[in-house]
Amino acid sequence: MNNKNYIKLIIKSKIAFFSEIKGFIILRTYGYKIWENIKNILNNILIKTKHKNVYFPLLIPKKIFFIDKNHIKNFYKECAIVTHSKFIIKNNKVILDPKSKLEEELIIRPTSESIIWYTYSKIIQSYRNLPILINQWSNIIRLEIRNKIFIRNSEFILQEGHTGHKNKIECINEIIKIKNIYKKFIKNYLCIPFITGFKTNNEKFSGAKFTFTFETIINNYKCLQLATIHYFAKNFSKVYKVKYTNKKGKIKYIWCTSWGISTRLIGAIIMIHSDKNGLILPPKIAPIHIIIIPIIYNNNKNLIYKINKIVYKIKKIFYNKNIIIKYDNNIYKKPGNKFYKYENKGIPLRIIIGKKEIKNNIIEIVRRDNFKKYYYKINNKLYNKILKIFKKIQINLYYKAKKKMKSNTLIINNYKIFKNLFKKKKCGFIIAYYKINKYTELKIKKDTNATIRCLIKKKKIGKCIYTGKITNYIAIFGKSY
Amino acid sequence: MNNKNYIKLIIKSKIAFFSEIKGFIILRTYGYKIWENIKNILNNILIKTKHKNVYFPLLIPKKIFFIDKNHIKNFYKECAIVTHSKFIIKNNKVILDPKSKLEEELIIRPTSESIIWYTYSKIIQSYRNLPILINQWSNIIRLEIRNKIFIRNSEFILQEGHTGHKNKIECINEIIKIKNIYKKFIKNYLCIPFITGFKTNNEKFSGAKFTFTFETIINNYKCLQLATIHYFAKNFSKVYKVKYTNKKGKIKYIWCTSWGISTRLIGAIIMIHSDKNGLILPPKIAPIHIIIIPIIYNNNKNLIYKINKIVYKIKKIFYNKNIIIKYDNNIYKKPGNKFYKYENKGIPLRIIIGKKEIKNNIIEIVRRDNFKKYYYKINNKLYNKILKIFKKIQINLYYKAKKKMKSNTLIINNYKIFKNLFKKKKCGFIIAYYKINKYTELKIKKDTNATIRCLIKKKKIGKCIYTGKITNYIAIFGKSY
Fold first, then answer.
1. Nearest CA to A433 among A410, A452, A461?
2. How far lies B21's CA from each of A106, A110, B138, in Å?
3. Cβ of A57 under 8 Å from any chain B Cβ?
4. Is some CB atom of chain B closer than 8 A to the CB atom of A15?
5. What are the extents of the domains in chain B?
6. Does residue A363 belong to the interface with chain B, where contact is any CB pair within 8 Å?
7. Does the structural domain A3-58+110-273 have CATH classification 3.40.30.10?
8. B434 and B463 in contact (C-beta within 8 Å)?
9. A with B: how many residue pairs have Cβ under 8 Å apart?
10. Does the domain spanning B3-273 belong to CATH 3.10.350.10?
11. From start to end of A184-323, where are the E strands?
């Protein structure tokens, strides 16, 4: 799917709409519902692991935000900065009131570590207050120069988890816990395949000791970061002076993590699962699960009556079962047009009811992902049968995408071939043995435009693709979207 | 409850925490959960009435925001204005990069009518696209000079519904529908009594044809607006050119409404339901419904074992039933201290289990709202018994508050007495016949500091409290919080 088609699909399926300001979008009802489903699923998982939601201010004073020097490095070039609070009306024009200049600039949060740990430094006293396991669903702004709808919005909605722990072991255990949550969530609900590993020092969130990342391939050969988990160790707590008294009465710094996903995932879902007919949504996050389309010609009232009765029966079977069914009984539109419309919107199942179906006392069910057809009777078994189809769709979408990712992933041990492949845009990921070195990393980037998406430590050793030196690390290389 | 105690209670019960910037607060886990409960309840009601959630950008370009002149009037003095996008580092200091000045100022939304109708003007074509029934859960900023935690925050989270209709009848029907939703919601879930009516032209949202309001009394004699519904008729659609083609092919303007509630409701709940022991939360919005406190002295292990078994039984009875139970088994804290703590947090029910209870095979249940005690056996009937108590608490809280509001509401027909009552701060609402007139309205405000909270049309006529003229309107007067 090229970029033009990607944007067209988003507009046509009514997922989003562009706003007047570059990088800002409107999430329409259909698109926002996808996000709400993503949010509810992940939120329920995080409740079970005792993470609790909070809300920190949208605006962060400059002096607090930049206490951490790494924050300066990460964000000083892409902030939305509030400087004034009033307008005046002059010659019938509304202009900035220079007298309303704020004493200090306020930054719209691009991330919340600073304000969170600054605040907790005043709240935490003893080991009894730990661990801190909080999460925030919020909107953030990063005024990036390159925009790409969902993938690189200037404003996006995200989930940002922040945790604080007594010691290293507990902190690392938290990282492992979140890693497993994200793995299951991205695979089982979004049907997206991925590779995981550590970011290099060049690519990690600066301030983090390490960043663990989830990477996938979109549009055949570009790479996308789906989620990240940052291990800060005591970096933030030292900067923001977040201390606690341990059991022995000693004052210690806490150990921190942060981790997040965002509306970018909607972009990934669209790019990975769509086909030439439009979107394909995994049932677990689809706003509408089943579209019922009646096949009626010549406004046959008797037939309409019979179909309505069957639709009523179906709706009764699915009543209160969290399956969203839509019945499109608009008699002014042709069935074919309806097929086209709902295929484009990616609704997982289509139920067709017409003369033939009524005669045979069945319904025709068509899967969106592979157009496979099922003919079922309408009885209470229908619910379980459809749940089974949903499961099959989830599995099929994941494995189809995984196969595609695999076919675009190559293992290479020759740097010439490596360079050539990236030049010809014939690959997504290239996996190669690599000896970690910030200079060779930059040289490879210069040669190929590809970066190290992540690093994985191996038991077996091999030769670095660039230097030939012995190493037990492999790197996944790829080009950023 | 005076202001000092109100703030103390919010901090102590861990509902919220002040941020560094005036008017911005941190909603802690306990406070945010109250908001999430409010949100989920109202959201589920709005789903049933087919209102769908959307997300519009946080930032609105000045030129779009101020297309509507009423918006200028309402908001030009309290905007958070984004003017720059970058910092530079000079002499080790982070300062605003003057080169990053934006071409046009961006305003953090204080409300979203402008961006919503500006956008819909490009989307809506035919009567088939109507009605538009959308809702947004978002954060907004209004930099008010006077701040009061929850009541007048500079940033607050709100629900803002926006609807567009074909004609006046449908638009008015929408207003009636939302009125009924808010009435039931505020009464049945939040247990808050109120008076409803129309705002005067001076007090309404400018741009609205009329504003319907829900008003209550807090702290004995101050008034608070709980929710508002605005009827815009064609005002916004004319300004933002939102047109549709009707069935006959004619081009028409749409009819609009907007309506909202916000985190301010948390402030109202706290002020209205608290007593000298702290918060009292209505069970329907309480983050924790039941606190179980074991009565153990001398670390009696046998007793602890028996109590744990009973707690397990209770938790089993309530498993998956949406009743949140907390068991505070900290053996280092005295039961008395725990009583004190959870009373302060307003948890609706306390269950006590000690030697006596185990001997008699019962548990003691204490209501937070009136400290009434119940002694129940532990069996499957317990669930329904506790649901009944919750219902009783909801009803009791509402009627207690209603009685208080009534006792602070006076019907007066003499202006001297009227003035005196407000002077002596001996009343909340004063109800009086009143002939609508913007000059007398301002004069009364000058005399008493009280404003017209709302107007109600009556069948019976009476004499205006200020002018003595015949009128069929009564006004509810009161002082703003």
1. A461
2. 9, 17, 20
3. yes
4. no
5. 3-273, 283-404, 409-480
6. no
7. no
8. no
9. 176
10. no
11. 195-198, 210-218, 222-233, 243-245, 251-253, 255-262, 290-294
> For residue B63, how many other CB atoms are within 10 A of its CB?
12
Chain A contact set for B27 (CB, 8 A): 54-55
| Tokens found for residue B357 | 């209870």
Nearest-5° Cα angle at A186, A184 to A191: 105
Query: Could B81 and A80 be called an inter-chain contact, meaning their C-beta atoms sit closer than 8 Å?
Result: no
- DSSP letter, residue B199: P
Crossing angle of helices A264-273/A381-407, nearest 10°?
90
Chain B interface test: which of A30, A55, A60, A162 (most B C-beta within 10 Å) = A55
Report the residue from B21, B56, B61 with minimal CB separation from A26.
B56
Q: Residue B395 is which amino acid?
A: I
* Contact partners, residue A391, CB within 8 Å, separation at least 6: none
Cross-chain CB nearest to A123 (options B17, B20, B122): B17
- CB atoms B83 and A84 under 8 Å: yes
Please name the residue ranges forming H helices in B104-234: 113-123, 168-184
CA separation for the pair A72, A66 (Å, rounded): 6
Paired tokens of B342: 């959870």
Superfamily of chain region A290-389? Anticodon-binding domain (3.40.50.800)
Handedness of CA B55, B59, B64, B66 (dihedral sign): positive
Q: What is the pLDDT of residues B197-228, one digit of tens each?
A: 999 999 998 889 999 999 999 987 899 999 99
Per-residue pLDDT for chain B (481 aa), expressed as one digit of tens each? 888 999 999 999 999 999 989 899 999 999 999 999 999 999 999 999 999 999 999 999 999 998 988 878 888 899 999 999 999 999 889 999 999 999 999 999 999 999 999 999 999 999 999 999 999 999 999 997 788 999 999 999 999 999 999 999 999 999 999 999 999 999 999 999 999 999 999 999 888 999 999 999 998 789 999 999 999 999 999 999 999 999 999 999 999 999 999 999 999 999 999 999 999 999 999 999 999 999 988 788 999 999 999 999 999 999 999 999 999 999 889 999 999 999 999 999 999 999 999 999 899 999 999 999 999 999 989 999 999 999 999 999 999 999 999 999 999 999 999 999 999 877 899 999 999 999 999 999 999 999 999 999 999 999 999 999 999 999 999 999 8
Using the beta-carbon criterion (under 8 Å), do A17 and B123 form an inter-chain contact? yes
Q: Which token pair is A466?
A: 């660039």
Cβ A123–B54 below 8 Å, yes or no? no
Measure in Å the smallest separation between the Cα of B20 and chain A Cα atoms: 8
Query: Which of B140, B161, B128 is CA-nearest to residue B57?
Result: B140
3-state helix, strand, coil in chain B (%, to 5): 35, 30, 30
Contact B81 A76 (CB under 8 A): no
Q: Give me the residues paired with residue A462 across strands.
A: A471
Q: Which CATH superfamily groups domain A409-480?
A: C-terminal domain of ProRS (3.30.110.30)
Give the per-residue pLDDT at B297.
Answer: 80
Question: What digits encode the pLDDT tens for the residues B221-275?
Answer: 899 999 999 999 999 999 999 999 999 999 999 999 999 999 999 999 999 999 9
Which among B261, B265, B329 is positioned nearest to B292, based on CA atoms?
Answer: B329
Q: Using alpha carbons, select from B331, B330, B326 the residue that is nearest to residue B349.
A: B326
Whole-Å CA distances, A141 to A25, A385, B58, B155: 12, 44, 9, 16
- Secondary structure of residue A183 in the 3-state scheme: helix
Residue A152, CA atoms < 13 Å, CB-side half-sphere: 11
Kindly report the CATH number that applies to the domain delimited by B283-404. Answer: 3.40.50.800
Name the closest residue on chain B to residue A17, using Cα atoms: B119
- Report CB contact under 8 Å: A108, B82: yes
